[in-house]
Design a protein that fits this description.
Largest sheet: 6 strands, parallel
EC number: 1.1.1.22
GO molecular function: NAD binding; UDP-glucose 6-dehydrogenase activity
Number of domains: 2
Structural class: alpha/beta
Catalytic activity: UDP-alpha-D-glucose + 2 NAD(+) + H2O = UDP-alpha-D-glucuronate + 2 NADH + 3 H(+)
Enzyme class: oxidoreductase
CATH superfamily of the largest domain: NAD(P)-binding Rossmann-like Domain
Number of helices: 14
Keywords: NAD, Oxidoreductase
Radius of gyration: 22 Å
Order of helices and strands: EHEHHEHEEEHEHEHEHEHHHHEHEEEHEE
Strand content: 5-15%
CATH class of the largest domain: Alpha Beta
Strand order of the largest sheet: 3-2-1-4-7-8
Length: 394
């Protein structure tokens, strides 16, 4: 396959992982409005926490990767524009905020008359078809990502599947670009669909994962309320091969950037469609945090320590982590809260002091919230409150 000039708009988890995947075979320019991120990539440093991406940037000088804040130049010279800008959920409009994606699409279509635009950002069902009609262009393609934060590059190199929302030659070409950089290209299933079906695949897949997390959390809530051994029940349930053992570790709730917003967006897409389950998945996550907070408060702690704000191990993302929801509920009852989070630079988080010395943190807190167990806390295990049974994020 001949070399193709690619611009990736957005230097977050999705953008960086796609840029490195594609830079193995094509010249890639990462476009971002944040000059600090651009400078980091120019110095071959990662913009997010991803150990493999960091190693690639440091050890693989042959990767054809550049970065810029100059949108006009980056888009004008591109044969392909991969759009990986944020689409946060807006609770006021009850939908994703897609303005960053729409801006890049408009700029890219105006910049040249031939580039293929591949939207990797998560969008509402029907978004791509609306953009195609609005701009009178079939150059816009949606291809969902299925990446884990902290392991995004690894998941791009060995993806569970590649889905492209275009069943014609353009979709086939996009799939080839994405598959080409995989470790074993022929082993990766490729599904070409219509654009709206591809958007639905993304939202339904993440909502199913959220449902599974919520199910095992509610199992744990039941067991804890009745004094039962949660581990024994989960082990027995998951021996059924139709159920399996993945995504079964109780937690404080599903969190992070994707699952909370994607479930809410899917629920919003059901506005005129009968449903019970999708709404229950969203509601279950709030109920779980209520239970955890109440269970902590029953222990009558004087000072609660929050060990790590990140959504999962190996991530530097604080967005919508479940432990923050529990923290806010505890603070609302007037219990002092302190935070240990080495990846956070501020002195306070939601008006709670950030204690940078781990020993001091452990000494000051008489109860420590930990969504996942960690060796850091082995010496104060009697203080730790967690629902982690299996010692991992799955």
């Amino acid at each position: 396959m001949s070399s193709t000039r690619i611009t990736v708009a957005g230097a977050g988890y999705v953008g960086l992982a796609n840029a490195l995947l594609l830079a193995q075979h094509h010249p890639v320019t990462v476009l971002d409005i944040d000059a600090r991120r651009v400078a980091a990539l120019q110095a071959r440093r990662p913009t997010v926490h991803d150990a493999l991406a960091e190693r690639w940037l440091r050890e693989r000088p042959e990767l054809r990767l550049d970065a810029t804040t100059d949108a006009a130049h980056a888009l004008a010279q591109a044969d392909v524009v991969v759009i990986a800008t944020p689409t946060d959920y807006d609770p006021i409009t009850n939908a994703f905020d897609t303005r960053s994606v729409e801006t890049v699409v408009a700029q890219a279509l105006a910049a040249n008359d031939h580039s293929t635009l591949v939207i990797k950002s998560t969008v509402p069902v029907g978004f791509t078809e609306r953009l195609r009609a609005q701009h009178g262009s079939d150059r816009i393609v949606f291809s969902p990502e299925f990446l884990r934060e902290g392991h995004a590059l690894e998941d791009n190199l060995a993806p569970s599947r590649i889905v492209v929302g275009d069943r014609g030659p353009r979709g086939q070409q996009v799939a080839q670009w994405l598959r080409q950089g995989c470790r074993d290209p022929q082993a990766v299933p490729v599904l070409l669909t219509d654009p709206t079906e591809a958007e639905a695949i993304k939202l339904f897949a993440n909502t199913y994962l959220a449902m599974r997390v919520a199910f095992f959390n509610e199992l744990d809530t039941y067991a804890a309320t009745h004094g039962l051994d949660t581990r024994q029940i989960i082990d027995g349930v998951c021996l059924d091969p139709r159920i399996g053992a993945g995504y079964n570790n109780p937690s404080f709730g599903y969190g992070g950037y994707c699952l909370p917003k994607d479930t809410k967006q899917l629920l919003a897409n059901y506005r005129e469609v009968p449903q019970n389950l999708i709404g229950a998945i969203v509601a279950a996550n709030a109920t779980r945090k209520d239970f955890i907070a109440d269970d902590v408060l029953r222990r009558q702690p004087r000072t609660v320590g929050v060990y790590r704000l990140v959504m999962k191990q190996g991530s530097d993302n604080f967005r919508a982590s479940a432990i923050q929801g529990v923290m806010k509920r505890i603070k609302a009852k007037g219990i002092p809260v302190i935070v240990y989070e080495p990846a956070y630079e501020g002195e306070e988080f939601f008006h709670s002091p950030v204690v940078r010395d781990l020993a001091a943190f452990k000494a000051q807190a008489d109860l420590i919230l930990a969504n996942r167990r960690h060796p850091d806390l082995d010496d104060v295990a009697d203080k730790v409150y967690t629902r982690d049974l299996f010692g991992g994020d799955a």
